[in-house]
Design brief:
18% strand, Rossmann fold, alpha/beta, 39% helix
Amino acid sequence: MASLKDVAKLASVSLMTVSRAINNPEKLNKETFTRVKQAIEQLNYVPDLSARKIRGDSSGPRAIGVLALETAMTPFSVELLQAIEKTAQKYGWNTFIVNLFDDKQPDHAINTLLSYRPDGIIYTTMGLRKVELPEKLLGKNLVLANCISDSEQLACYIPDDYLGQYQAMQQVINKGYKKPLCIFLSEKTLAGKTRRKAAEQAWIDAGRKVNELISYHTSSSPDNLAQEYMMTTQILKQHCAKKLDFDVLICGNDRIAFVAYQFLLGKGYHIPNDVAVLGYDNMVGTGELFYPPLTTVQLPHYEIGEQAALHIINSKNKKEINYVASPYLPRKSL
């Protein structure tokens, strides 16, 4: 890779002149600048921004480092990373992403990230969760996206799962459904606990009795998602033995809804005439592919990434949990 010295040699100028051509071209005459520019293009020279940061030189673009815990492994949350990058570009910032495939041995990934001397760091996760922050990140200009932590008081941007589920359940009630069957995510997940609490509160606030809700949680099987979601089939079999004993199915996420669709349609039931289905997440690229299209709640991954990036770019100081709206998306299954 070409160095600053290589450019200076080819252009027959000093190192200082090359530096000025890159950072303050207005200080050079046109002929000198053109000669340096041609040398840079001929050698494909790229300025070493990390080296500048180490020397305390802040003349280059500012940068956000992203530590992505499993975020790039699924299309469901890759929008979060896309939002960070697009927002940074809009404001003239750079971004770089260091992937972390589990949180058991994070040292190498964190050392790589810190070696670039980012002006701010966003720690993201796939799936809302509570994380224990590595010691090397404590005290840094750090924002959490799609996660929370007890390690340090920090700015966190997470989906408003409570209000999202509450408002969706209000729609269920307003449409006249009276016998919900609920299959929530595992009780071990933040989303599973929060969404059940919200659904039950909406039911109670409508003057209904909480024991009218038939509720289950899937088991938590990170290493065997197929087994986890096939629990849906077993639950549905119990409630379809002779005839349906529920009129609406409340699903913990759209993947549960997908399994439920296959089961119910396979049994000859019509959605929503025989039974309605409500999802959650708005799984990327698939909501409209359900037949009929799935009514669901949008997980605001893009908005979370955007707001986390703006927190750093705008030098916000508040260190608190920020809940990002999860809107109800009406389609044809409810």
